[in-house]
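Human: We require from you a protein record containing the residue sequence and its fold in token form, and nothing else.

Assistant:
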Amino acid sequence: MVIENENKPASRKKFVLWTLGILSALTVVKYFSRSAQRNKTTVKMLSQDGKLVEVDYSKLSQKKIKIKDAEIHKWIKRKSSL
């Protein structure tokens, strides 16, 4: 008996399944690498003199209030350029 399927090229179905498997594995790796970045202990914030500073997350209050853009412009105290 001669087996005819020994030299058969890879089918489209196998190609699509392998491609989807690799893409899903890369997505899972990317998701877990992002979750490690979210566990930071410091947060970058803008100080009143307009400088960017890092603040320890435990020092911030848990009560979050969103402010308007106009309030930010009034809050920052800039030195005069003259």
